[in-house]
Amino acid sequence: MDQSFSTKSFWRLLRRGDPEKYSLGVGNSAIRLSLSDIETQVQDEHFAFSSFKTQIRNGCLVLTSSTAADEFVLRKIADNLRRALNISSADRNSIVPQVIQLAKEAKDETIHKFDIKGFFESIDRSRLLIDLKLEPTVSPKTIQLIANLFNSDQIKHSAGLPRGLSVSSILSEYYLRKFEDGCRRLPYCYFYTRYVDDALFFCHGDASTIESDINKLLPTGLTLNARKTTCIKIDKDGITGSKTSASREISYLGYSIKFPSTKKDKFTVSIPEKKVSKIKSRIAISIMQYIRDEKYEDLILRIRFLTSNFKVGGSKQNGTLYSGIYYNHQYINKESATTIFKELDCFLQKLVYSKTGSIGTKLSSRLNNAQRRHICSHSFLKGHSAPVFRHFKNKQLGEARGVWAHA
After folding, report:
1. Same domain, yes or no, for 73 and 210?
2. CA dist 383 to 209, 304, 378, 393, 397, Å?
3. Could you tell me if 26 and 148 lie in one domain?
4. Span 235-277, pLDDT tens digits
5. Is the pTM value of this prediction over 0.85?
6. Which SUPFAM superfamilies does the UniProt entry name for this protein (predicted)?
7. Using CA atoms, how far apart are residues 126 and 37, in angstroms rounded to an integer?
8. Of 15, 31, 30, 28, nearest in space to 71 by CA
């Protein structure tokens, strides 16, 4: 297994959009030359990571690479760890349909959802590094670069692993390796899955000791978030017998799974209200930004982004990755999809055509009827039911998302 930080290994980790994003040049020769320069930099024993870009996302500090050298070195560290330690990241598109099917068939059991509190920030870096140094399959250079990362100015004074960097998810999976084994061995649990800090257990009976058992399994520094713990009890007929949302609904990986409370009720998979509200906020923010700058093409770009589907990159290893209104919500019931996306279409139309209220009074003089029709021709329902695809450049995606930094 090649763990070298070489031009060849960096080339294998190249993604669509990288040449433009990191100014690697145009054409294969220019790109290889840039990657060769990164190889030279990382071979220097004094190699240090540059200052990372920072932003606050959902109340948490998130770091992103500001240079090509940092990004490709971090990708190679993650690649080396993944291969040497046989670590595979959870795939939400594999987890979600499996969870939905099991939930639909559930009878005489309990489903428990737990959240690990302050997940990345609570991981003990010192303990992690000690364990990694004992792994014979991980190269000394890889260990050295991880230590360099932990000692960089922006990280050494903060707790845990930095969110946003490609290597952090792999390191966190390694940190939880024994926890994973323990969860899979719980005698009353017949199915267990975890995506980052969200763990889900399908159990025979009430599994009354599950919370204390999990707390014992958690590694140093990690605890459960009691406020985000959910337990659904399902009887032999597959119903909860409860009318309250907390006792019959579970949100997992962007989906709301609602169990029937009576035999007449349906099992439904929808989008959590919080997520619907987030989309509405982004529509409103896009409109308000247009009121401020009157840049019509930017408004259309943002509405297209919200209502369509698009490529988000990929790599030579993983192929093309997609995102958007269909790909982010592809497993919801048809009935739920129709209701929710019609609601979002109506929300957009009311904002655009309104001539009253704080937005309507300011917007009415800034749009003509042709522009209103053009905006409302973009549909959430159409974008989901017959997936509409758009092409966005990386710069456009960044500009579109920029105004939604806190939404």
Report:
1. no
2. 45, 9, 8, 19, 18
3. no
4. 998 888 776 666 789 999 999 999 999 888 999 999 999 999 9
5. yes
6. DNA/RNA polymerases (SSF56672)
7. 31
8. 15
